[in-house]
Amino acid sequence: MRHPILLAACIAGVAAVAGCGEKDANATVERAFKDVNVVDESNLSDVMLTVADPNEAVTYFARSAAEKPDDIGHQRGLASSLIRAKRVTEGAVAWSKVTKMKGATSDDSVEYADALIRAGDWAKAETVLDGVPPTHETFKRYRLEALVADSKQEWKKADSFYEIAVGLTTTPGAVMNNWGYSKLTRGDYAEAERLFSESIRQDTTLFTAKNNLILARAAQRDYTLPVIPMDQTERAQLLHTMALSAIKKGDVEIGKGLLQEAIDTHPQHFEAAVRSLRALEG
């Protein structure tokens, strides 16, 4: 008589164990999906911050920030995306908000200063940078410090900050271009030429540095193209820059010759150079 009772107890026990196992399994699956969602969200955020259309990224992070207003990652994403979308005033406001949130770092303050510089608020950017601890030694911090010093014509400080910034990055081409332009505005053309040449050596795609190099050479009345990587279109554009610089210095005949060379060199119709030459001849 006891066997049926024992069997029933065993069946109940197995059912209970099975029930527990099912609950555990469901919980495990839910955790796994939750982890996958976190990974997917992280990957999507990375895509939005790098290769996505900037305005689409703004929409994505604005929605995410509205859903989780205390998530500093979403707020950072929104601020970065606004800057990428060239909505710098909104971006500066967004970065200001990030710097006041729990978990904010010195990097956030540096990004805020960068946004302020882009928005033209140099004084506030300087104040923000002054509040960053001196132990926070990053490339971006010192690049911005150099730009601020440049804006105040504090040349020794600017040179010092540029030098530190160059030493803190493996890709110094762009900051060397900035440093060269600083030297150009001071009238130190030879040093500007050296820095632009070094900038191009570091990054051969920097057309701005190539154009600035021509300006530095032309300022010294050197109207020959330097030996640097350039395609045919770039060569024509650089000749055009050199021509205008020569004309500005009073070397009109040289300028006319360079304009004609630019027109002949360009693989297509070079309207800007044609207009300049016609104006001179007219």
Concise structural overview:
This protein has 282 residues and is mainly alpha-helical. Helices cover 78% and strands 0% of the residues.
Protein architecture, described:
This is Tetratricopeptide repeat protein. The protein is mainly alpha-helical and 282 residues long. Among the domains are: 41-104; 230-281. It contains 14 helices and no strands. The chain has helices spanning 2-50, 54-67, 72-84, 88-99, 106-118, 122-130, 139-151, 155-167, 173-186, 189-202, 207-219, 232-248, 252-265, 271-281.
Element order: H for helix, E for strand: HHHHHHHHHHHHHH
Please give the radius of gyration in angstroms: 30 Å
**Spatial shape:** elongated
Sequence stretches where pLDDT stays below 50 over 5 or more residues: 1-20, 32-39
By secondary-structure content and strand pairing, the structural class works out as mainly alpha
Level of helix content? over 70%
Largest sheet: none
What is the beta-strand fraction?
A: under 5%
The number of helical elements comes to: 14
Separation, N- and C-terminal Cα atoms = 123 Å
Number of strands: 0
User: Residue-averaged pLDDT, rounded?
Assistant: 88
Features:
282 residues; mainly alpha; 14 helices; 0% strand; disordered N terminus
